[in-house]
Amino acid sequence: MRIFGNKATVMPLAVAAALSLGMPQASAQGLFDMLFGGGVRHNPQGEFPPPPKPKPNKVPGGGGSKISSPSYYTYKADRLVRVDFAALTSSPAPAAATEPEKPQDAAFVPSVTGNAFHEAIAGLGDYELYAEPYIAKALIAYYSANPDFIWVTDTAPNSRAQDAVRVLGEAASYGLTPADYTVDVPAASSSASANERLKELVRFEMALSARVLRYAHDAQSGRVEPNRMTGYYDFPAKPLDMEGVLKTLAHTQEVRTYLEWRHPQNPEYQALRVELEALQASEENEIVVDPKLLLKPGESSPELPKLLTLIARNLDDEMGGDYGDVLVRLGKSELYDPELVPVIKAVQKRAGMKGDGVIGPRTVASLAGTSKADKVTKVKVALEELRWLPSDLGSPRVFINQPAFTASYIDNGEEKLKTRVVVGKVTNQTAFFYDQIEQVDFHPYWGVPQSIIVNEMLPRLRNDPGYLDRAGYEVTDSSGRRVPSSAVNWGAYGANIPYSVRQQPSEANALGELKILFPNKHAIYMHDTPQKSFFERDMRALSHGCVRLQDPRGMAAAVLGTSVDYVAEKLKHGHSTEKVTRTIPVYVAYFTAWPDMAGNVEYFDDVYDRDTRLMQALDATEAVRSPAS
């Protein structure tokens, strides 16, 4: 069994002591900021950043028009710009002083300072250093206000520089690309003239600062801007004070700790790092099973012993105790003996399937269908996606993982509830975002989204304008006045319909007996459903985009901090709403690799092909960063 963890790193004693005492994430971060100062702008009260404000959707008018789903875009990375050092090279030399002012800890003060630095920056006149526009701007702003070396002492790179270069060189352990942060380090001693040596050192200074800022940005926010990839992604910016990063690094010896804390500080991120390290050290899958295998009890196949070998390798203590003896006796059997059916069912249930005992492509994929290369890609994608989320995911929280078709309520490090869900079909995909739960509606009305009115109801209403009246729907005009559906000339409208439609509470209501709201521009929420049979399917991308819960009462009780009996009592009294009084973030997430609560990483199908698109965006970023110029 794998546990959450990471390679040991050197930390300040105060930080190490605080973390060893189990300090909550928010408090640990506060101590970290107290020790290191600037570098990241926090939101008040420590809450996770609010989602971006919705932008108005413009929909075309005209008969026959439809409201389209969000699209995917060709990703365009920020072009690098040449850093303009003119502002530095043209600035006047600092006034000479008999005794330069020193910070409290003189050990942090480089010897090459003041006029010597000003002399050195003359060597930047023809230096071609390329960086992202915001990094180029920050470099000039910082060194204009702080004309001194960070990474050089006397005439050589200092220990601070050595630590930074080591951290940048270990970027692959976080799923990053080390070449993005490569810096040529000057030799400790050189036969060059004093002027040439100064030129070499100041260019190293600027290059290392630029790459450290890139690393800090990538660690905190990711290498790509997710909202540029598709309208299905909706993440707030995570502002990083670039000048603050350099100021902090100029006055601390804990460079490694500071840079590593720019990464997400949650157990899931650490578990994915451990998985990546294990994958990179492992051999390629030597057991290959036919991905199209279909085998029912009583049938035979030479592929079965391969599957049984894989199952035996990954037995935990519980499954080993239940099925170890059967696997020893029948592990080489090509006949799917009835005694093996409980083993297969247990494996299927552990992988989130319904456990029917039929060995098909999905069962094979859960055991042997993901190659080492595919797993590495999924883990790197998951690490990148986690960098889009808050560093501390919060507790309690609701976490929906669309590829796994599950929703979990997690509190104090424990998964208190896990339930199957139905998410949007490929043509009505569920967005990837996070928000905050606000209320539970009992026996809710269903406000029909405009996309469903236009795309699905309108064609029928043109021929049968009264069908909404008969089906238990209410129609209201733009002023909120109810009008009969039969009185509306539906044929006069295209995508712009000046009417709202909602379904009254009933057993047939599309939302079932309750819904859990976290208002967002995508009109997505969690809810019950009359279509219970969908939860028996393994592939559950079947809805219009909202998240249907197999256990809605359990989830409602969890977020309200009450019992299922209380929820049942509320449902006896008709339509009502109840506010959620605690701060409970909800993640409507999309991870094809994700650790369970024990830290074991599970893999899922890329239902919407989003991993492929993210890899294309990462490739576009690499193409911009890779040219030598």
**Residues in helix, %:** 25-40%
The structural class is alpha+beta
| DSSP summary: helix tally | 20
Whole-angstrom Rg? 29 Å
Label the overall shape.
globular
Description:
This protein is α+β, with helices and mostly antiparallel strands and about 625 residues long. It is built from 20 helices and 22 strands. The radius of gyration is 29 Å and the shape is globular.
Quick rundown:
The protein has 629 residues and is an alpha+beta fold. The longest helix has 28 residues, at 194-221.
Write the topology of this structure:
Blueprint: H1 13-20, H2 25-36, E1 81-82, H3 86-89, H4 114-120, E2 130-131, H5 133-145, E3 152-153, E4 156-157, H6 159-169, H7 194-221, E5 233-234, H8 242-250, H9 255-260, H10 267-281, H11 304-313, H12 317-330, H13 341-350, H14 361-367, H15 372-386, E6 397-401, E7 406-411, E8 414-424, E9 432-436, E10 439-442, E11 446-447, H16 450-463, H17 467-470, E12 473-477, E13 482-483, E14 499-503, E15 514-517, E16 526-527, E17 541-543, E18 547-549, H18 552-560, H19 564-571, E19 576-579, E20 585-589, E21 593-595, E22 601-603, H20 610-625
Parallel strand pairs: 5-9, 6-20, 8-17, 16-18
Antiparallel strand pairs: 1-2, 3-4, 6-7, 7-8, 8-18, 9-20, 10-15, 10-19, 11-14, 12-13, 12-14, 15-16, 21-22
